[in-house]
Amino acid sequence: MTLLIIVLIVTGLAVLAVAYVAGQHVYLRRQFQKKAQADQRLFQRIRHNLNERLSVQEAEQRFKLEPHTEVLRFIQGNTDFPLTQNDRLRILNNGEALFPALFEEIDKAQHHVHILFYTVQDDHISNQLFEKLEQKVQEGVEIRLLVDGVGSHTLIGGERFKALQKQGIQCGVFAPPRLRFLPYMHFRNHRKIVVIDGKVAFTGGLNVGDEYLHRDPNTGFWRDVHVLIEGESVLLMQRIFATDWYYTTGEMLEENDQYFPTFTRQETHQRDQQTILAQVVPSGLDMTRPIAKDSYLIAIHKAKKRIWLGTPYFVPDQEIIEALNAARKRGVEVKLIVPKRTDNPFAHYASFHFHKQLLPAGVEIYLYHKGFYHAKMALVDDHIANIGSVNLDRRSFHFDFEAGLFIYDRHVCRQVETIFKQDLQDCRQLKAEQLFQQPWWIRTATQLSLLMAPWL
User: Fold this and answer.
1) 296-310 pLDDT, tens digit each
2) If one looks up domain 5-67+84-274 in CATH, what number appears?
3) Where is coiled-coil annotated (predicted)?
């Protein structure tokens, strides 16, 4: 009798937990529909000005993009985010490159620093960041810090977060769980964006924490990629931050030259020799379709020579699998880098199922052995590179808010090619016999993990 009562209580609590999470999901879906409507109304002048500055037709002629014009046309047609030119870009490998560059730019800030990360910890490197932000506040610089309610739960639940607000730092928490002990996986803000004075932006795969500087013994060496951007793309990164900030806090930034500086036609002409053509690509439930997935799909379908992909989590849907296999049938070289060591065992074991669908077609899969591979990169032919926060999994494609940068520039593509080749030196190629001769317990773990695939 006692056992029956315990079972009923545990079952009842489990049902309540599931009902709570489901209710939160319904609530958030409705809220994000309202966010989508608001996003369309905000900051129209920025998009209009950039559209007026460079049309798709002009870009095709100036940048000789004929092999891949369908990719940029699709992105622009489905996001209403225009092409940007005059962008200067620096690739930052790992935390030891990102944090010094980020701190240097914060030191130079005159008007504002806007920070959005999925995860901000309360540890050594995070406190270095906080100290710089507190110093800039004292100098009269506006500081806005936006973090995800689940990804940054250790920070927002502690005293340090309260201390930041007391120092004058404006803080926002994106979609915090109403009951902190029952977090939910979906609908997270997985973006990593920093904008400084509307002139410099950072985006990529890194969050803020000591683990991103290889200080976590569980993950060891943390391999990741970020970018520093100057130029017109910064305006669109600012727009993403501003719409997320407005949804979270209700504060709407003014569409003025302090937050959204303008580039004159003379500046455009003077910097033609350094011009990089790019597209900022936001995705999430405030978009009309899964843009992150669809932009990858169309790039894969249009590839002529190669598709090189790097991702920490590989749990795609069948459309991505079929597109990659079809690319191999066309003679396109397909390489995929994934980690050997993982921080998500469900995604890790589930990925074996998808590897088995790719290896027979000739897709080359490489396991990164040096540490934990967390970079999110793509290289398509010699014309398109992508760096951002998007994982090749269903959460990034369908549930999370993400941001990426498509770059149409041969010079940048050569840099990304070099980075891929360097990473491949720290990989071992996965052979079909290894995969199809796995022990029973790994095969069982794979099948069980597949039950979670729609949420991974």
Assistant:
1) 999 999 999 999 999
2) 3.30.870.10
3) none
101: left (phi over 0), alpha (psi -120 to 50) or beta: alpha
CA-CA distance, 225 to 386, in Å (whole number)?
11
Rounded CA-CA distance 60/64 in Å is 5
* Contact in structure between 107 and 133 (CB atoms under 8 Å): no
What is the Cα–Cα distance from 350 to 353, expressed in whole angstroms?
6
Phi, psi of 283 (to 5 degrees): -150, 155
Nearest to 363 by CA among 422, 418, 323: 323
Distance CA 419, CA 225 (A): 9
Residues recognised as catalytic: 190, 192, 197, 374, 376, 381
> Strand pairing of 377-380 and 384-388?
antiparallel
Answer yes or no: pTM beyond 0.90.
Answer: yes
Q: Parse the chain into domains and list their residue ranges.
A: 5-67+84-274
Looking at per-residue pLDDT, the higher value among 407 and 22 belongs to 407
Q: With a cut of 80, say whether residue 244 has pLDDT above it.
A: yes
Q: What is the pLDDT of residues 165-194, one digit of tens each?
A: 999 999 999 988 776 555 566 789 999 999
